[in-house]
Structure formats: C-alpha cells, structure tokens
Predict the 3D structure of the following.
Amino acid sequence: MNKSRGVSRRNFLKLAGMNALAIYTSGQHGYLLEDWTRMQRQLQINEPDVEVSLDAVVTEAQILPGRSTTVWSYRGTVLQGEASVLQSLPGSYLGPTFRIRQGQHVRVHFNNQLPEPSIVHWHGLRLPEEMDAHPRFAVSSGETYTYDFQVLNRAGTYWYHPHPDMLTGPQVYNGLAGLFIMTDDEEAAAGLPEGEYDIPLVIQDRTFDADNQFVYVPQGMMAETMGFLGDSILVNGQPDAALSVETRAYRLRFLNGSNFRIYKLGWDDSTPLTVMGTDGGLLETPVQREYVTLAPGERVELWADFSQYPVGTELLLQSLPFSGVELMDMGGMDHGGMDMTASATTLPHGGEFTILRVNVARESTERLQRPAQLSSIERYQLADAINRDNPRQFVLSRQMPVWTINGRSFEMDEVAEDEIVRLNTLEVWAFDNVLEGDDQMAHPMHIHGVQFQIVERQVAPDTREGWETVRTGYVDEGWKDTLLIMPGERVKLLLKFEDFAGTFVYHCHNLEHEDMGMMRNYRIEP
Ligand code: C2O
Ligand code: CU
C-alpha cells in the first residue's frame, strides 16, 4: 500500500474524530458508503482547518494597456485558518491559489454572483460526488454551494474551475480558474525550492477586440464544434509574460488552463526540460525531456536550474512546432494533409511562439541539488486488473456536429451499462481515438474522482507522422487525471476506484467539446 495514502487516511479519520484503527483496517480498500456518511456528519460538526468564501464575480482586469477588460473572476476570503492558505497572483484575473496540506479539512462557501448557473470543480482532487461538481449540482445566480471535504490527495498542482453543463468553456474563458496546490510530508522531505522559488505558471490563450475585451467563438459553429484558439498567450493572466530569476534552482509548475490549445514546451536554447511532477504530484525520480506536450487541463512541474547562466542571459520558453492535432475533412475538400485551425487565429495550433521570457537577473549563492528521489509511487500492474484481457473501451468519435464517446453524448442522469464500475477494483480502460475519413482531432480526456496510470500507447500508421511531433513530450511516468489522445491513438490506462462510490463524469477537456456533449457519467457502485 502506498505510504502517503495510508498517512492521509489516518489523518482523515483523526480529523473526523473517529476511531481511527477500527475504520482504517476496513478502509484499506476504500470507504463504505456508511463510513463516508458518518464521516461527513462528523466533518460538519467539527471545525474545519480552512474555511473560505469563494465568490464568482463579474469584474474588470487590467490586461492590456489602456482600457481594462471585463472578466469573470473568483474572489476568495479566508474565514478560518492562516491567511496564507489563499495567495493571489498579482494583477491577475485568475482566482486565488489555495495552499492546502494533505489531510486538512476544507470548507468553501461558493457564492455564485454571475448572471448564470455555475459550480466549482476541484480538478484532480479525490472527493465524493457531492463535492466534485457534477453539472447537476450547478447553482443559480445569487445562490451558494458549500463544500466540505478533507483532501486525501498527495502533494501536487491541482486546480479549480467552473463545471456547469454547456457553459464551462465560456466561463473558464472569461477568467474563472485558479490553482489548488497541495503539500505533504513526503514532498517536504524531498527538499524542493520553496516560497518565491516555487512559481505557478498558468498558460492560456485569449483573443481581444479593439476595445480590449475578450472575444469568444466569433465564427459560429466552426469554433464551437472544434475548439476556440486565442491570438495572444497569457501567463497568469498577463501578456508578454516575463520572469526575473536568480542563478539557482526553481520549481516551475505549469498548468495548461486553455480551452483548446495544446502547448509543446521547450527552451529556445534546446536545454532539456527536467520534469519532476505531473497532474497527481511528484514523479519517483526526475526525468529529462527535449520538450513537454501539455494539453488543456494537464499540469507539469519542472526543476529549472539557472545557475549555469551568466546574469543578463535571456531564455525563452517556447511552444515548439507540432502537427496532426486537427485533421479536418472539410466537406470533401482536399487540404493536402494541412491542419485546419478551429478559429480565425493569428496563432495557428502547432505554430512556434514564445510563452515566457526568463531573465537571469541576479546572482545567488544557493546551490540546491536536484534530489535523486522525489517520491514513491505504487505501481499498478496490468495483470492485477479485473478486466486485464478485456479493457473497457471508450471510442472517441464524431457524429456531426457533436463529438461522442462510444457514440453517445452527455445526458445529465444517464449511465450506460458499460459505464458502471465497482468500488475497490483495478480496471484497465482503453481510449481509442478512431479515424473516420480524414476528420480527426486530438482529445485531452479527463476522468473525475481518480488519479490513474498510463500503461500503453499505440498509433495508427496513417497518423503516426503528427504523433511523432508530440509523443516524446508525453510524461506518462506519474499520476495523471488528464491525458492527450492524438488522432488514431489508442491509450491504455489503469485506474482503481478506491475512494468513494458515486456518479462522476469523464470528458474531453477541450472545453468546447465538453460543452458540446463529449462527456459522460460513470458510476462507482459499492
Ligand atoms: Cu477540469 Cu471535468 O474538468
Ligand atoms: Cu475533444
């Protein structure tokens, strides 16, 4: 059993004021529903470690010179706990960054002050269904939804964003998103850069009109069915982002918070990237990549050591060229294999551009060494999966105009026979991005309620060429909750439903696809 997980469960029970030993022994293979109901009752009685009010509001942000931009934004206030549990990104429309220790009991009062329904999803966190923002929990304008949960997850870079049915794309685009950073004892023991040397970087793309206002889906159906691409790259809500660093090691945490755009992160001087974390936290050991492919919803953490650069050096973090993410058969027209972009952007999907300028500005005497061991990860084995010879199939396809999973699109209350799994089982799932004519797109798939492990990727010969431009940038070594599946690609992953029974969604994190119904329920039965 994974060590850190055991610790988290023990803390959970301690905080919930229960007989830890008695439940812990039965809890090794997941909570029974009755256990959970009792814990929930206890949590409501007990004082939380952290209590926050989180308002979603319409406001203004200074993004470009001149007129400010109307944005939708999360505003947080700490009601209980240290003030440092919420940290704001200076000058950004992004919501406050939560800083939470594993095992803490968190209560969040979400106040919807938007003109339409919304609900907050804690992307990557292992929570019961009432806390996970299934779209059916969306609250109307003026209403409040109270979250009350204990965070079981290991240290890592998680995030939160709206999740109402059919409105997620525009709400995130308008500015609603924030980071949820977890720490734990295992991470503290690794001795990583902290404080001002631990830097979150949220990458998003936006298009502005002449009055500096966000433009979303101006071309009608085209962008709606394919995905929206912006003309400008924003990092932490700022254009032309620059980072001034010292000659020492940094922890850089990247979130691709874009609706549709995929990035291929690489340094302009071809220095390899040292990856130390993925969606679900730290890897066992750091790994080197020439570049990292980061799809919407995914996170990656880098160990970035600037000590070999003289003061005055400017480095560029770029998105490097790639192809094959959108293969469109435009009503029979032959595009000679050329990728079609979803919207009239000046920044083509797969083009080369700068994301972040890094200025090596000051000397530092700190010579923090990169740890050889970062964490321990319990490795799932395919042989242990209950369906090892018969993976649960998810075919990603299209039925004009919507994108589908196994030929179906989202229905609020519908769970198909083949979307029901059992608590405490390890399963192998296979996502298959099938080819139908030339009409194909990459889909970043996200599964709520679990962190999973990727065990195998294959690609059809017809689409290998594009795949080769991104695939060595996959970081499949760590815990994942979102994964990119390229056209013609088939990916197998192992996932264990060990936390809570309930109904959760899985969907494409291309938010336009999600809103168009490329989302389904799955149910974990006790
Ligand atoms: Cu980040 Cu269901 O989404
Ligand atoms: Cu998709």
Summary: The two ends are 21 Å apart (CA to CA). The longest strand covers residues 50-61. The chain is about 10% helix and 40% strand.
